[in-house]
Every structure is written in structure tokens, then in C-alpha cells.
Please model this.
Amino acid sequence: MVKQSRHQLKFQSLLAGRAQFMRHNPTDTERALWFHLSGEKLGVTFKRRVVVDRFVVDYLAPSVRLIVEVDGLYHSRRVLADARRDRVLQRLGYRVLRLPAELVRCNLVEAVTRVRLALL
Model:
């Protein structure tokens, strides 16, 4: 068993608290997409706002190692940081699907279709 430093434990605790806060305070687009992802409606179990490594991800389907992110305007200023984050998650064996919040808001059917296709 690997021993974690006090700093690592504190960081993990902060991440867990942040994830819990975000789970209880979703954006409108996150809430709309969650309605279609929850309850195995797409044939797999999704979890929302969970910690993967050092990141809080929007949705995770652990059985197929798929992460779904809903990107609002904030992400338009974080393209390079998001790309680095995606590379770390991919090295850990996850696939990352990014959906623009505008797509979820204006064409939820298309957003869900993209998730469905990513599950194949």
C-alpha cells in the first residue's frame, strides 16, 4: 500500500469536497444531460462529478472508461489546459468526450447521440 503525504490527503479531501459541491449545484446544461445519462438509460452506469486522479470530471462511465465533459464559456479560455488534462486522463486509460454547453442547451438530442456513439 502506498502511503500518502499529509499534503496529498488534504488535496484529495479538497477535491472530494469540491466534487460534492458541484454535484449538488449543477448548471442547467449539466442537469439536462444528467437526466439522459442517469439510471443506465444508455446501457451503462454513469457517475457525476467524481474525482479521477487529480481532476473532477463531469460524468464518468467507469465500466467503459468514458469521461463526458460539458464545456461552457469558461473552457473557451482553457483550451491548452483542457488538452493537457485530457492527455493525462487518456494516459490513465480514459476516453474523453467534450460537449459544448451550447450544443447541450440547443440540441440535447444531438448531445445524447454523441454520448451514445462514444459508448460503442
Q: What stands out?
A: The first strand starts at residue 47 and ends at 52. The first helix runs from residue 6 to 24. The helical segments are 6-24, 28-37, 79-91, 101-106, 108-118.
